[in-house]
Amino acid sequence: MSDTTPQPQPHTADLDLDPLFTTTCTYPSSYPLTYPDTYTILPDTTLPDTYTTLPPTYPAIPPTYTPSLNLLHLLKTAATVSSGLVLDNGPGNPVESIPYKELLNGALQRARSFALCMALETSASKIVLLHVNNHRDSILYFWTILAAGGIPCISFELPQDLTARGKHILHLQSLLKWPIIITTEELLPEFCGLEGSNVLTTAAIETGPFNHPSSDVGPGFVKTADDTTVLMLATGGDGKAKAICLTSGQIVAAIKGKLEMHRTGKTDIFLAWSYFDHVSHLVEIHLHAVYLCAIQVLFPVDITIAKPSLLLEALERYHVSYTYIPNFFLKEMVAVLEKHDKLKESPFHPENKVYDFSNLKAVITQGTLGTETINNKAIELLSKHGAPAKFLRPGFGMTEFCGPANLIGKPINAVTIRIVDEDYYPVPFGESGMLEMSGPCVFTTYYNDPDRTTRMFTKDGWFRTGDLARIDDQGQIVLDGRYEERFTVRGKCFHPQDIEIAIRAQNIPGIDDEGIVVFSFCPKECVGAHWVNEVEKLKPENLVVMYETSFRHAFTQLSLDVEHRITGTVLEMCGIMPYKVLGVEGEMLPRTLKNRISNLLVKKAFLRGQLRKRSDGWHC
Description:
The chain is α/β, with parallel strands linked by helices. 29% of the residues lie in helices and 22% in strands.
């Protein structure tokens, strides 16, 4: 591997000249785009200024993509240029450069490993669970598995609890039909003691022996754009992993929609720091950059989370123009910038550093409810350091349609959306309904789970996202929460996210903003539970608010003040007292396999009596 870091080229695009971003009422605007000849220019579609004539689907006529090549052909094309990966391993560590040509050659060589080839020949499913813990191995072996003709399934971090870990691995083995597992020597002990596991280490693959190549390409090149290319793991409502089948055609359609929406090009510098198992890294950054033959910088996850200021420095140092930052970390970056700017104003501050974010074209973030305040603060602070107007782009995305598929309420040209009521009739403008999606970037099946696939698709082939949404008077798509989590109090419908937002707005000391959960339950859901008395059984609906707190004990005066303020907020908003307000110390609320708090899992733990009251508070 070369130690010479490719020199990124500064991006100087003036977004204010782009008609796509100078209007918030018309989508899509007719605008000229100039791309290389290898890109397909989609037909313009202009909607009337009066949105009352808009048909129930939005946009009305989705473009048709006809990708004929798989992902390996994209990498082979990228290998003809000098761009590639830049692996920054943090302060004090050397920066490693891996050109796309070297990445392709390395993948093709490892794909000829005798051990890997034999494993794939005897595997009925050809699925390979890739379980590694660094960017280099994740990307290299993702392409290795593709080149060898396998289907990579990118694993996420296994649970620390040994019992939960064993259950998770056994579930994956059953779900993926006993896949081949590729891991490192360091992580190999996590799979010890599991019968029937076909585990290969990266060291065993790299030391050979190797098959003699019959051609200069691997067997993976013969796959079509419609074949399953990769399985992405996500957590289902039952808390177990589900595997989403994505094809090369769906991924390429999503990338084309993203590059047209964000006007990315080969001179842009991409940066990723999240885990490779997340669609925001795989599609939004890595494959997006490969498609454009652009430079992509990889920054370590653990170092980034431990010290957010290092990511700010990386954005400046590499002249980054495109990256993804989730809401929770955007909040951390805002806190760092606020502290930095406050110290900079002091005459005693040793340095007067001003960041230069003038090359920052797009920061993709989550367009979830309650993020407007932190988003506006991020825009204000980064703009002081040269970030251009409209660089922050909230998006709604799921792995099922290859990541963020809309920008500030407007979908990319690879999806069509519709909003329907419970009888599946289109709802009028301004009214909330169930959000459904269709289009060339939307997946079509969950692997080895036909029942879930049937439940999640309508009879006419639309994917049920499970979200509630509406189209406002400006033609923007507005999310209104999850359909399954809404509840009715005294005839009025509420969404848990609205109450959670109202509680966060109180800025109550000691509460983690990301650790607030609101859910409702009917007494019939917990018949026989000893903690529901006869009076409570008469109530038609009960609200529970749970929050993670830094307080050491749940019965201090501070915690009682928190409970009083939360109760007042719920009473003012809903007109009823919450059944319970419970604080748990630290990160004790149930989380998904990807370490996200799930309202549904918290509710299930509560109803099952898995929350226990002790002298020092409530515990799961």
